[in-house]
Amino acid sequence: MNRATVITARPGLGQLVAGISGIVGRRPAPRETAYAVADLLRDRLPGLDILTPSERAGSPDGYVSHVLHAQDDFSIVAVVWRPGQRTVIHDHVAWCTFGILSGIEYETLYRDMGDHLVKIGHACNRPGEVSGFAPPGDIHMVHNTSAEVGVSLHVYGTDVSRLGSSVRRVYELPVR
């Protein structure tokens, strides 16, 4: 049985859910799924009105995630970042696709060398940009480097409402 939870009706969410359901229903490999969902998200990236004004405000205590839809094989989550907020270095339990609605998400990529991490790249993700990835090789840290509140839409290949998070592991190794 496929459990689905839609938190509330939101502009553009129904179309996204239908399109993503069609992709994941074909059961492509994780990386192929991430790229196909990224293509869909590029065509259907919603506006900031997918969140209420109070949801878009974020929190001074850290970035905030709003689960907009969750079912067994994928979740749609809006992440709100105030200026300067960042994640810890982490990886994910499943494939992920994200699109930037506002702000700038500066992403630093790392490789695990066993006893330390090495920076292997970065991306400066701006409004309208969409990307996707799948484990392994998805170790990263994300930082809102803009002066405005950032909002991004993330699609994860798992039910984050059941797991509590899309994070598989937090990395506390030194970076060299």
TrEMBL record:
Pfam families: CDO_I (PF05995). Keywords: Dioxygenase, Iron, Metal-binding, Oxidoreductase, Thioether bond. Belongs to the cysteine dioxygenase family. One of its GO terms (molecular function) is oxidoreductase activity, acting on single donors with incorporation of molecular oxygen, incorporation of two atoms of oxygen. Gene3D superfamilies: Jelly Rolls (2.60.120.10). There is a cross-link at C96-Y156 (3'-(S-cysteinyl)-tyrosine (Cys-Tyr)). Transmembrane segments: none annotated. Fe cation binds at H90, H92, H140. The keyword Chloroplast does not apply. InterPro entries: CDO_1, RmlC-like_jellyroll, RmlC_Cupin_sf. This is Predicted metal-dependent enzyme of the double-stranded beta helix superfamily. PANTHER family: CYSTEINE DIOXYGENASE (PTHR12918), CYSTEINE DIOXYGENASE TYPE 1 (PTHR12918:SF1).
